[in-house]
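Problem: given the chain below (194 residues), write out its structure.
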Amino acid sequence: MERPIRFDRDSRPRAGGSILPTPREIAELVSAADSMPDAADFQDVVSIVANTGIRPAELCNLRWPDVDFERKCLSIGASGGARARRIPLGDKALALLRVRRQRQPDSEFVLGRSPRLVLERASRRCRLLSVQTCRRVVTLRLLRLAFLNRWVDSGGSLEALTLISGVAQTSRCAKLDLEQKFEIAVHHQAQVEV
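Solution.
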């Protein structure tokens, strides 16, 4: 049986030393920030990106009305529009978002009142801490790609992955079974959480 296509072109370190982080390395990265100021923001950003595959820019713009706790998903893009897509939430990501909501009940954005600042700090801290914990630079983008690879490696539906990752537009015919593909994605989400 052939090995699935990987999103990184090579599993060996490249000139910049950027290979995808393992689940163990992601956990070490998150725990390394425990004693730092604003550790919760950093840990939340890393965990959300690593467990949902959301793009960092999409996380920056994510508002609380876009988080559906009952249906266990994030709505990305135009609310209710044809271009909106849903990202399923596993139990870990859902619990993290509930705690974050309780910590910041008055905030419009998931990342607080200054989401761009939170994301920039988390991005810088990710680069710095990853050198210590993973012995190479890990970016938020690499955390997203690691999620996509874990999805593929664990046997997840590629059609569902393209829908939740936003890497392909769907045709009108394909939209008929979007709900079915999303339900498959929701069930598979728990297998890829770190």
